[in-house]
Design a protein that fits this description.
- The structure is a homodimer.
- By secondary structure, chain A is mainly alpha-helical.
- Chain A has helices at 3-21, 30-41, 47-58, 67-84, 101-105, 107-126, 128-131, 136-149, 154-164, 172-182, 184-198, 202-229, 232-235, 241-244, 250-254, 256-275, 282-293, and strands spanning 94-95, 98-99.
- In chain A, helix 3 (47-58) runs parallel beside helix 11 and helix 4 packs antiparallel against helix 6 (107-126).
- The mean pLDDT of chain A is 93.
């Protein structure tokens, strides 16, 4: 199967769900609604929504209940990028070749559009309570979404990452914490919510969390590996930028070969857990491999 | 009754509920947890939590279900102040005589602590789904919280306020929009959630929303009035600062006397609706009067 083609197809599929939930750009507060939609429409591979829908399918899920969560997870991912790009954070003016939200709409609107997206993600996800009132799986999915996005999830990782900049001296435990939370937490949320709403037992949800944790960590280590060996053109950023920015990385702790090996080991462990489940979704397996063994 | 004494007593009561939900300051992400708690503990009169608990009591509410919402509304109010104070927004270094969150913890941490509080508010409120699983009133309360805090509520008002700065030329409709959303929306959320969880019918919730809308607007107009006539020392800020900042105000549109009259009219209309309900909470009536007829 041509994974890139398949992914593009699935991305347009989830875009259909996401677009349905975007706010109409009208009213006195139009600017923030435009800024929110601009941030979402700026693109991205929609990895998290696709992980969610594919895990949902793995467990035989087929209802309408997933759609608000698909939109919500992408809103949360997007708000985190909008705030990350702010001058007080990474100070990035470009993302995927387009002006970042604050570069286009001003810094105040960048802050407010991020706040707006985070809040709107919960508004959107909470609409699932109307689709299946009283369904305890919806309650659980909402709680996982909130927990994995917050200070014990993504925001927590982001905080420690910000504090560790230009600090070669941080411990490997601390680096693991950043990696597991900053990127890992939303990958976990995506797959766990797919599993919960797809009908998984709580043991199965735990296994999916393990799969996602390993893949999230492998994904981040691969990032470090690519920063050292990647082709500048393919990667779209300067190779060796981590070293130049004095950013602590896995490669610095473990060396290049051991880091590469770790990516492979984590991926195989994740896929072994996934394939131990009495269900099958070959595309999901392919997707996990692709996420970590990519060359850009 | 001595309303200030009574209010201080009630504030310490709701503080008990709020503190129970504050995160423990430990783990690698400790800094953001400290910044969040610092922002909440910096004080404030806890008007929104008290409005919530008093409206809950009005409808005979007496269960544990309210506490997570009491904490959540104060977290949302607090995050909005933390982000408002940022350099790209109002650029305030002091609030209630203490350094603002970003002044104390740095700008990046100010952004992240605000994000953390907003997200944690939903984590906290969503814990109510475990207290009374399947209760449709909890679902409704969660949706009201999200809606009134977001781009169709508080954030929407904040956006238009930011865009209207230094613009004497805005329309009165636009000013009404700002006033109704920026401050009004969270007052509505507080009272509506109290009503919903207290057992109000949907007609009664609508009436409470009207009461809160009128009080919220009166509260804002009174702010404009006090900016012109208030005693500098009582008010704690420079009188006439709105005019100096070229801030559009109600007094500019309607004049001082008509504005004062409007505050009284809105307050009496609100109290008439409230007293038309077949329930009584004299303290709530006093509180509403105090909110708008204050001299600081």
């Amino acid at each position: 199967m041509d994974i890139n083609k398949e992914l593009a197809y699935k991305a347009s599929d989830v875009d259909g769900m996401i677009y349905k939930y975007l706010p109409a750009e009208k009213g006195y507060q139009k600017t923030v609604l435009q800024a929110m939609n601009y941030s979402i429409l700026a693109g991205g591979k929609r990895i998290r929504p696709i992980l969610m829908t594919e895990t949902f399918k793995l467990f035989g899920g087929a209802s309408e209940i997933l759609a608000p969560f698909v939109a919500a997870i992408e809103m949360i991912h997007t708000y985190s990028l909008v705030h990350d790009d702010l001058p007080a954070m990474d100070d990035d003016e470009l993302r995927r070749g387009k002006p970042t939200t604050h570069a286009k709409f001003g810094e105040a609107m960048g802050i407010l559009a991020g706040d707006g997206l985070l809040n709107y993600a919960f508004e959107t996800a909470l609409s699932a309570l109307d689709i299946e009132p009283g369904n305890p799986r919806v309650a659980k999915a909402l709680q996982v979404l909130a927990n994995k996005s917050g200070v014990y999830g993504m925001i927590g990782g982001q905080v420690v990452d910000v504090e560790s900049e230009k600090q070669y001296g941080i411990s490997k435990n601390r680096l693991d914490f950043i990696y597991e939370l900053k990127t890992g937490a939303l990958i976990e949320a995506s797959m766990m919510i797919g599993a919960i709403l797809g009908g998984a037992s709580s043991e199965e949800v735990d296994k999916i969390e393990q799969v996602a944790k390993k893949i999230g960590l492998a994904f981040q280590i691969q990032d470090d590996v690519l920063d050292v060996i990647g082709d500048k053109e393919t990667l779209g950023k300067n190779v060796g930028s981590d070293e130049k920015n004095q950013k602590p990385t896995y490669v610095i702790f473990e060396g290049l070969e051991k880091s590469k090996q770790e990516v492979k080991t984590l991926t195989e462990e994740a896929i072994t857990i996934l394939q131990g489940l009495p269900y099958e979704n070959p595309f999901l397996t392919e997707l996990l491999r692709w996420m970590v063994l990519r060359d850009k």
